[in-house]
Amino acid sequence: MGFWASYLQGWKKFVDFNGRATRKEFWSFSGINYAILFLTPVVLGGIAGLTGSAAPIFYVALVYIIMSIVLLLPTLAVGIRRMHDINRSGWWFGIIYLLPLLNSLLNAIVFQYASPSVYVYTKLFLAVALFWIPVIFVLALCSLKSKEIPTIKQ
C-alpha cells in the first residue's frame, strides 16, 4: 500500500477502533493531518495579516479549533488500531489524551493553593511529567514493528 493509500485508509476507518493499523498508515495519517493542522492557520493568518483584517486572530483560532475537533476522533481511532498492531491495549494511546486532562486539573488545584514561584515550577514539572514524557513514550510505541496476532492453542 502506498503513502496516500495508507492516508486514505485512515479516513476510511475513521471511527473503527477495532483491527490494526500499520506503521505506514499511522505515520502517514498523523503526519499529513498535523501538517494540515499547522499550516492552515499559518496560511490563513498570513492572508488575514496581508489584507489588514480587523480580527484575524479570532478567525484563525476558530479554524484551528474546528480542525482539531474534526481530527480528534480519526486520530484516536488510528492510534488505537496502531496499539492493537503491536499487541497492546488501545488505552496506551489514550494516555496522550487523558494525561493532559489530569495536568489541567492539577494545574487548577496548584494555582489555588501555591505561591506564584512554586506554581511556575510545579506547572513546568507537570507539563513535562504528564504531557511530554507520555507523548514521547507513545510515539516510540507507535514506531515499533507489527507483531503477530497471538493464536490460541487448543
Describe what this molecule looks like in 3D.
With 154 residues, this protein is mostly helical. 77% of the residues lie in helices and 0% in strands. It is built from 5 helices and no strands. Helix 1 crosses helix 2, helix 2 packs antiparallel against helix 3 and helix 3 crosses helix 4.
Summary of the model, kept short:
The protein has 154 residues and is an all-alpha fold.
SSE order and pairing:
Blueprint: H1 3-12, H2 23-51, H3 56-85, H4 91-113, H5 116-142
The best one-word shape is flat
Order of helices and strands: HHHHH
DSSP E strands, number: 0
Question: Counting H and I runs of at least 4 residues, what is the number of helices?
Answer: 5
Strand content: under 5%
> What's the main sheet like?
none
Termini separation comes to: 34 Å
Radius of gyration based on Cα positions: 19 Å
Mean pLDDT value: 87
**Multimeric state of these chains?**
single chain
Helix content: over 70%
Helices and strands: which structural class? mainly alpha
Indicate the low-confidence ranges by residue numbers. none
